[in-house]
Write a structure and sequence with these properties.
The chain is an all-alpha fold and 155 residues long. The protein contains 5 helices and no strands. It has one domain. Helix 2 runs antiparallel to helix 3. The protein is globular and about 65 Å long.
Length: 155
């Protein structure tokens, strides 16, 4: 399996030139969107609904938007929509679990300060997520060209 590669880089990759940077830009936009959606849902739902409901609703919206943006602006792939989305959610879920485990390890086991540890762990998870999306969520089979003289024309 090959990572997603595109002959037509699209508008974002024409500006930033590097897929890794485009991934970070889309991730930053999606993080801001998730924060805004969470605050919006908290305001709409009010104090009678647990705050976790606002987080879940914001996540449900932002993961779909993140998928579309990463698929169209960063990895530039077509086809396999449902498979790609399931893998995208899987990689994101793996990132969440990795974040929780590494932060717990840093703070509870290694007794490192929580805030700097959270920043470092989020950076590690972001890098791991990039490779997860590149090689799992949006990977594509290499296109094979028919070999000439292979006998395919024999009758």
């Amino acid at each position: 399996m090959q990572p997603a590669e595109s002959e037509n880089p699209g508008p974002l990759l024409r500006i930033v030139k590097r897929q890794e940077l485009a991934f970070a830009v889309v991730g930053g936009v999606n993080t801001a969107l998730g924060m805004g959606l969470t605050v919006m849902w908290l305001a709409i739902l009010g104090a009678s609904v647990p705050p976790a409901v606002a987080v879940v609703l914001a996540y449900a919206i932002s993961i779909v938007i993140a998928f579309v943006l990463h698929r169209t602006l960063v990895f530039r792939v077509r086809g396999h929509l449902v498979r790609d989305f399931i893998r995208f959610v899987g990689v994101n879920s793996g990132g969440l679990l990795m974040n929780m485990a590494l932060l717990s390890l840093a703070v509870s086991v290694l007794h490192l300060p929580s805030k700097p540890s959270a920043v470092v762990v989020m950076g590690v998870v972001a890098v791991a997520s990039y490779f997860g999306h590149r090689y799992i969520s949006f990977r594509r089979e290499p296109v094979t060209q028919p070999r000439s003289g292979s006998g395919a024309q024999r009758l």
